[in-house]
Amino acid sequence: MEEEIQHKRPIRSFVRRTGRLTPSQQKALQELWPRFGLEYSGAALDLEAIFGRTAPIILEIGFGNGETLVQQAAENPDKNYLGIEVHEPGVGHCLLKARDAGVDNLRLLMHDAIDVLTCQIPIASLSRVNLYFPDPWPKKRHHKRRIVQDSFLQLVADCLGDGGTLNIATDWADYREHIDEALSRSERFSCTERREHIGELPLDRPQTKFERRGLKRGYRICDWRFTRSISN
Predict the structure, then answer these.
(1) Among residues 104, 115, 135, 158, which one is catalytic?
(2) I need a surface site. Which of 73, 204, 208, 210 has the fewest CB within 10 A?
(3) What are residue 224's phi and psi, to 5 degrees?
(4) 8 falls within a domain
(5) How much is the pTM?
(6) Which H or E run includes 42?
(7) How many CB atoms lie within 10 A of CB 26?
(8) Residue 140 is part of a domain; what is its CATH number?
(9) How many domains does the chain have?
């Protein structure tokens, strides 16, 4: 009998929820995705051709409903923005916000960020990566699902140019310790700024809806800026 070959399922840092799409979000995915959306493939993106210019590129992983991502794109027209999100309602909402804001320096991907970093983002093409309030996976047995792992940091470092930055924020105390430990092991990043605060000192970013919810519950925020080492 032919031996059955089983493929090991990769560990995901997210669960793809099937949230309900509003009619306007569904329409946005149909009509606005061709304008702002990029399809996943195994080939590297030609970012200059996609944006039609050469400019610093900022990637945000897990942009939620996209309101702060669109805000940043609108406030910084001299930069190009890429956003990754897997949940359709959030992507639909972001598309509507992007249309209403009239931005043209924003493109979206709806796929696993690890696959995108591995296959689609060219080496040394990014100036900054933002990771704001990633899922903390609070149960100890789920810590392996946290996106901030040694392998993730290697991928991000490969995609950042010399002196590029990884900006992270969390409101989960245990994840804060996890991030400190993971980055302390990395030879490719140095911590150039770290802030703990109660909402008054976000580090070069807008305050998010998720953050405001955490603050109401009494959580403290931690922001970091990690700079990619030039020699690595």
Answers:
(1) 135
(2) 204
(3) -130, 150
(4) no
(5) 0.90
(6) none
(7) 14
(8) 3.40.50.150
(9) 2
